[in-house]
Amino acid sequence: MTAHPHHDAETLTALLTAEGELVTERLDHWAATTPDRTFLHYGEDDVTYTYAQFAAATDAIAGNLAAHGVSKGERVSVFSTNPLAATLLMFGVWKAGAVYAPVNFSFTGSLLTYQIDDTAPRLLVTDPGLLPTVNAVADQLTHVPTLVLYTPPAGAHDHMERPEPVAPRFPTLPWDALTAPADRPDVTVAFDDPANIVYTSGTTGPAKGVVQPYRWMAQYTYNLRLPLSSQDVIYNDLPMYHVGGAIANVARAAWAGCEVALWDRFSPTAFWSRIAARGATTAILLDVMIPWLVKAPTSERDRANTLNKVHMQPLPLQHHEVATRFGIDFVTAGFGQTESGAPLGLFIEEVPEGEGTPAELYRGLPRAEIVSRVRASGTALLRGPEITRKAVMGVPTPFVEVAVLDEHDRPCPVGRAGQLAVRPRLPALIMDQYLGKPDTTIAAWRNLWFHTGDSVVLQPDGMFDFAGRLGDRIRVRGENLSAFQVEDLLNQHDRVQLTAAFAIPGGEGDEDDIVAYVVPIEGSTLNAEEIRAFAEETMPKYMRPRHIRVVPDIPRTPTNKIEKYKLRSQLLDEIGDSGTGS
Fold first, then answer.
1. Calpha distance 55→33 (Å, rounded)
2. pLDDT of 149-160, one tens digit each?
3. Which of 162, 262, 443, 480 has the smallest set of CB atoms within 10 Å of its CB?
């Protein structure tokens, strides 16, 4: 167990809220004091909002939400591929005192139906491009929300002249009813009111809606805000249903009073031209992105960019090599989770002064001031060559206690892997509950620790290292999912009796490949290609198994538990012998 030198509750509260407690208050502050500064640039359509323009637009959305019956605490689901629309809605929803409930835009069929029914939103906002997906589940929904169809303006990359009609089962509200001029409603929220419901994969059941209070966002962004000033530009290509995109990047910009530049998705070929176009100074790079950038041919111009602070999640072994090549002054790492926020963190001063971002391209706080801020916060600060292990996550923030626990919730000794557990030192720092799942919430909080479900090791140097996901968690293309989700969807095939899904190491970064062993219903015939075709019809791309095996039966224990370790060993031997990956 670890404690932090920072102090009593009053001191911790002052530390956490020094730049404001609520993200909406910070937006108001910058709109009043620097109204003409750019807040948001949407690169896909070259659209820019100043702080004053964005504040006015989201005030109007909030006022219209309230006028159409959306009251404090009600939920608004956003199912959109457009991060500009999602950002406008997110802040408008918060200003109305309602709860932002994003939906993964790759969901279809039963995944989409489940989340809408589970969230039970007052409104569901979607795009013309996603409307067919929503219409397809209209008759399966138990809860039918009012549907708002976002209308991209003429000339926008996602504008549609004639979207398909909305399914008649949905009550509708036009998009311009949300964007018409309106006064901001008189709604007050507290730090412990719900702000978001973000879904995370469940290892033994359906996905869980994580209810996040406003203070969760202050805690989650704390370390990432330390090195920022209003001169920074945050680059974002993460989706707005992901806390990394919505909170770590977009909400963080509103706290810092700087610009956030949005694109719809990561592009290895356009990444550096986007950085240059906006003079971006900071970005989040997921492990799957880094190999793409490293694979590009080296150039004497590699350092000639404005990116001087990068968060790498998880920290790769080659972090120093990447930083040295591209002139990145600081790399941050940590543990980030929808439920517990960011309880661990680490700053790495990667290169000596003068070997990072060229002076003529450098924007933001001077290096010495960043170092001073980090040291004052108590967060670990190391030099790049000192970190020679991958997946180092740093030390606890001052706001939490952290422990590594065994299966009986006893502390593990240094060097032994166990479950990461977190205990907040202030109220409303981490998730409030799993929506509508009190038993699951209580189980996660057993013995007065929040159990993250992730395996970590406390090393002799005092750093926590990520050791893997407990249970049947899988990570593909930056998305966390569970074997249960894969099995549940494949079991819906009319000739499948049983599925066992699990992960094996993938070929990129620390990503996984998904394996599915499928047992057909007795007397029926089934092959891997039929399962693959079914997966393409019913599952998001990242959830589809790479390896499919149709077998007459699956090994089980005497108590009928599936022995996935035998299947994993069998498949790895098979792949190793054949040298193939299918």
1. 12
2. 999 999 999 999
3. 162
- 283 CB-side CA count, 13 A: 28
Residue type, 313: Q
- Tokens 């393409």, residue located: 536
Backbone angles phi, psi at 413, to 5 degrees: -70, 160
Distance CA 215, CA 271 (A): 32
Cα distance between residue 143 and residue 116, in whole Å: 7
- 306 contacts: CB under 8 Å, gap ≥ 6: 233, 275, 276, 279, 280, 281, 357, 361, 362, 363
- Is the bond into 227 cis (omega within 30 degrees of 0)? no
DSSP secondary structure letter of residue 172: E
- What is the residue-wise DSSP string for 380-392? EEEEGGG--SSSE
Peptide bond connecting 558 to the previous residue in cis, omega within 30 degrees of 0:
no
* CB 398, CB 4: distance < 8 Å: yes
- Asked if 182 and 63 touch (Cβ cutoff 8 Å), the reply is yes
Residue 289 pLDDT: 82
Query: What is the C-alpha to C-alpha distance for residues 59 and 65, in angstroms, rounded to an integer?
Result: 10
Alpha helices in 418-475 (DSSP H): 438-444
Q: What is the pTM of this model?
A: 0.87
Q: CB 492: neighbour CB atoms within 10 A? A: 12
CB 571 within 8 A of CB 548: no
Residue 66 gets the label, from left (phi > 0), alpha (psi -120 to 50) or beta, of: alpha
Whole-angstrom distance, CA of residue 394 vs CA of residue 358? 28
Distance from C-alpha of 305 to C-alpha of 324, rounded to nearest angstrom: 12
| Distance in Å from the first CA to the final CA of the chain | 44
CB 367 within 8 A of CB 353: yes
Give the Cα separation of 545 and 506 in Å (integer).
12
| Burial (Cβ within 10 Å: 0-12, 13-18, ≥19) of residue 17 | middle
CB 395 within 8 A of CB 343: no
534's tokens = 């079914």
Task: Note whether 333 and 393 are within 8 A (CB).
Answer: yes
pLDDT at position 3, please?
A: 42
Q: How many beta carbons lie within 10 A of that of residue 345, not counting itself? A: 25
Would you give the DSSP letter of residue 572? H
Tokens of 282: 């900071």
Ramachandran category for residue 133: left, alpha or beta (phi over 0 → left; psi -120 to 50 → alpha): alpha
Q: Write down the pLDDT at residue 558.
A: 62
* 425, two tokens: 């030192």
How many Å separate Cα 332 from the centre of its chain? Answer: 16
Q: How many CA atoms lie within 13 A of 558 on its CB side?
A: 0
| Integer Cα distance of 19 and 23 in angstroms | 10
Report which secondary-structure segment, H or E, holds 289.
none
Residue 282 β-bridge partners: 234, 309
In the chain, the percentage of residues whose pLDDT exceeds 70 is 95
- Going through 207-338 in order, the beta strands assigned E by DSSP cover 208-213, 233-236, 259-262, 282-286, 309-313, 330-337
